[in-house]
Amino acid sequence: SQTIHQWPATLVQPVGSPLSLECTVEGTSNPNLYWYRQAAGRGLQLLFYSVGIGQISSEVPQNLSASRPQDRQFILSSKKLLLSDSGFYLCAWSVHSTSGRSEQFFGPGTRLTVL
Amino acid sequence: AQSVTQPDIHITVSEGASLELRCNYSYGATPYLFWYVQSPGQGLQLLLKYFSGDTLVQGIKGFEAEFKRSQSSFNLRKPSVHWSDAAEYFCAVAREKTSYDKVIFGPGTSLSVIP
After folding, report:
1. Which candidate, B53, B36, B51, B58, places its Cα nearest to that of B94?
2. What's the whole-number average pLDDT of chain B?
3. Over the stretch A3-46, which tens digit does the pLDDT of each residue have?
């Protein structure tokens, strides 16, 4: 069966510090990968998606970047965190498909607090 | 452009009562529709999905949803709510024929259950 891991689970960082959040998927190959941010009391905002190694697309301009160094690894980074980067970050994967018929499976999330 | 609305930000029901969470979408073609649930501090779990066929779909945990094309709706229902159903519920729509499975999420409805 497939599983998705995210770490760390929680993180408290000072403004201006770097960030690296990691997501890995097991039990599947060539998945689509996604990073979402969920601000307090709000819905999900898609930040990045990837359809393959080294292929990253950004949905919104921001202070963050993403990389996919391996097929099942997706990393969210920042060189200098802002207060507005605080939130709940969710990684998700889906079967690579052009039909739109495959649902997304979510990791447990990382709670980031920037002080 | 696609969009998903969930008119109810917060709903409170008594345990054992019936539940209906509303979802409306805007999309020019046949949508692929999903309902996800998120417990506090956790990732999202898929409750059910609609791609085609029978417009009444059954999901996990006793939930069901009905697709009504004429009303552009995909409301989630449960005949008898349990205290463990207290969570955030997200409706989502996916596009077909794209190079990735981009899913647009609604803002969510928070469900509280009174004992």
Report:
1. B51
2. 90
3. 999 999 999 999 999 999 999 999 999 999 999 999 776 688 88
Residues from chain A that touch B108, judged by Cβ atoms under 8 A, are 42-43
Closest alpha carbon within chain A to B107: A43
The residue assigned the tokens 């159903």 is B85
Which pLDDT band, with edges at 50, 70 and 90, does A103 fall under? confident
Chain A interface includes B99 (CB < 8 A): yes
Q: Domains in chain B, please, with CATH?
A: 3-114 (2.60.40.10)
Distance CA B53, CA A63 (A): 43
Inter-chain residue contact B102 with A49, CB threshold 8 Å: yes
Domain spans, chain A: 3-114
Q: Do A44 and B105 touch (CB under 8 A)?
A: yes
